[in-house]
Amino acid sequence: MTHLYLIRHGEAEANIKPIVAGMKGDTGLTLRGRLQAERLRDRLARTHEIAADVLIASTLPRARQTAEIIQPALGLPIIFDDEVQELYVGEADGMMNAEAWATYGTPDFEAAPLRPIAPGGESWGGFSLRVATALTRITSTHAGKTIVIVCHGGVIDNSFIHFLQMPSMVLPPTDFHTRNTSITHWEYVHRRNRLLWRLNSYNDIEHLHDIGAFESVRWEDTDSSHIAAPVPIEE
Fold it and tell me: How many domains does the chain have?
């Protein structure tokens, strides 16, 4: 049976500044983010709850660093994969959010799901399609194995859209709040005479119980008098 574990990266510098963080703007984890990843590593080493066969990570620094920290607990080489990056931000990469929104317009994925965030970047619909394609490729290539992917909030959100067969070209009628270093566990099971994806857990942050689970304010929750926080899928 195929098991898929999706792990969100630890708290990133870009979440705090806030900055539009593609490969250029992503300066990696905060001290708190490293501590979160270390707590997850120690949990996995202690419990052996994930007997992974494959360890995949996004190539963005915040995910790469998280994967490198937890790697000793899984004992596997890291396979880096560009296709499980967060939404591609194009020319906005490295800009402060307020500057990017002033230049390219504030992202509104609900009203304009097919509008790229900036030239060279992705729309919500394009991002959703990329994630679905990547998850299909990875789970097909490693069918019957236990797969760990260290990735991003938007990728994990889109796993719900993909596996639950929700409309993918528009924002879902639900609000996900995927925590840093949380574990989401999907399993491919035989049910009703066919194979189906079953969600076993979401937002598992047991390893953070004594250090809290602080999250940055999302940009869409602020009014126009505030500096925007990170793009909507990155909290």
Answer: 1
